[in-house]
Amino acid sequence: MSIYRREAVDAALYVLRDVNRNLLTTQRQVATGLRVERASDNGAYWAISTKLKTDQKAQSAIQDALGLAGATMDTAYSAVAESTDLVSEIKAKLVAATETGVDKTKINDELTQLKDQLRSVVSSATFNGDNWVQLKDGDNPAKPREIPASFIRMADGTVRVDKLSYQVDISPSGTTTSKDARYLVDDRPDQSGQNGVFTSVHFATETGASQNYVLVKTAGDSTGQVEIALTENTSQDQVKEMVRVVDAMLNQMTTVGSAFGALEKRISLQSDFSKSINDNYSTSISRMIDANMEEEGSRLKALQTQQQLALQSLSIANAAYDTVRQLFQNI
């Protein structure tokens, strides 16, 4: 054996270095739970998973927006349902006023309370600063109310955000009808309340009423509006006109309620789908970059054993080399 050649020692060192390198990699995977933590681990998987993570964050934002929209729609639908009950009560009071000998002033006191409650319900139907049943200064009924619904990455790498919308059926000619009253109250200062069920005179004109009856006057331009109310001098024909107007309003309220209900259901379905997409993102990312903890745990134990054996081999090789070196020490 040559004292200048250390094949056994070098071989033991090579094995030990290889084991230590694999051991460090496995220890890092066990500690982080990831087999692809950096681009150097697997460039392709790292790039795909990084893009998926950013998309997942966007999808999570969509989920949050849908949750907020769902709460907003719950508030709006509750307002419509409560208002429908109140308007039904108003209709019943007006029908009662058609009876001979009824004190119309006392019935009017009840009507006043019911109308005040309608105003209270409409004003209170606000969630996170957004009211979907009342038009106020700056609101545009022709512009749809939009809700972020989905985040989509196209095949060419571009992205888009699709939205759900609630849009008023504004006539292309600009002439509104009772069908355009898709809100409960229209209080825009520069308008005559035409897009609110309770403030639109179209229900009166379309039913042939002698006056422009409304349930509550708009806070905007109320010129010509006649709020439904009773006095001792209110004729039976006028009461019957009021009943027809209120009944037409109730029919339109069912349309508004149905639209809100349909959109609320769509939001619920989209929210469930968004959660599924988010779960799919997590699963896909996990498959690409997560370490198999059972496999890596077993590998860690095996490498630790190999490290001990490699250290023993190196120790034996060094001892053998020292023995040979000592033979030539005094030569």
Strand/helix succession: HHHEEEEEEHEEHH
What is the β-strand count? 8
**Structural class by SSE content:** mainly alpha
Low-confidence stretches: none
Overall form: rod-shaped
Could you tell me the strand content as a percent range? 5-15%
Q: Report on the biggest sheet.
A: 2 strands, antiparallel
Helix fraction, binned, reads: 55-70%
The first-level CATH class name of the largest domain: Mainly Alpha
The CATH architecture designation of the largest domain is: Up-down Bundle
Q: Look up the CATH topology of the largest domain.
A: f41 fragment of flagellin, N-terminal domain
Polypeptide structure, described:
The structure is a single chain. This protein is mostly helical and 331 residues long. The protein has two domains: 1-33 and 291-331; 60-288, f41 fragment of flagellin, N-terminal domain, CATH 1.20.1330.10. The chain has helices at 7-32, 43-96, 104-124, 202-206, 236-289, 293-327, and strands spanning 126-127, 130-131, 134-135, 145-153, 159-166, 185-186, 213-214, 226-227. The chain has a two-stranded antiparallel ribbon. Strands 3-6 form a two-stranded parallel ribbon. A hairpin with a 2-residue loop joins strand 1 and strand 2 (130-131). Helix 1 packs antiparallel against helix 6 (293-327), helix 2 (43-96) packs antiparallel against helix 3 (104-124) and helix 2 runs antiparallel to helix 5 (236-289). 28% of the residues are buried. The model has no long low-confidence stretch (mean pLDDT 83).
